[in-house]
Amino acid sequence: MKKIFLSILIFVPFFSHSASIYCSGKIENSYIDGSGNVTIKGTWRKNWTRICNTSDSDVVNCSLWASYVATAVKDNLSVIVSYSANNGETCSSLPTYNSAPKPVYLMIKNPNFG
Length: 114
Known about the structure:
Blueprint: H1 2-11, E1 18-32, E2 37-42, E3 48-53, H2 59-74, E4 78-86, E5 105-108
Antiparallel strand pairs: 1-2, 1-4, 2-3, 4-5
């Protein structure tokens, strides 16, 4: 019994809690670099965050996200970017640039509906 209890105490710190966070606002700027990184600067963040890479295995999804980003910037639309965050991360504390986690989804909000 003591071994089981000790095993639990040893391994519990290695498990992290993951929760969904939803970053909402407008995309101030975006760029795609020569390596294929699609990077945005959201109003919720005030810093650059990579959302995907067009050279990765999911080329179609990343290309679609890039077109969503371009539309949101061009038409000044609000977006919601969902992340699976660890250990209490918030939209403003997510890692920046290429260290940012890949979003779960990117949604353009329809301005005609709440």
